[in-house]
Amino acid sequence: MKALGLLGQVDLPAQIAAVPRARSCVRGLLDGTDHPQTDAALLLVTELVTNSVRYSDSGRCPAGRITIVVAEHDGTLHIDVIDGGSWTSRPTVCPEVRLDDDGGRGLWLLQEVATDWGWYETAAGRAVWFRLAGK
Question: Where does the Histidine kinase/HSP90-like ATPase domain start and stop, copy by copy (predicted)?
Answer without folding.
Answer: 12-131
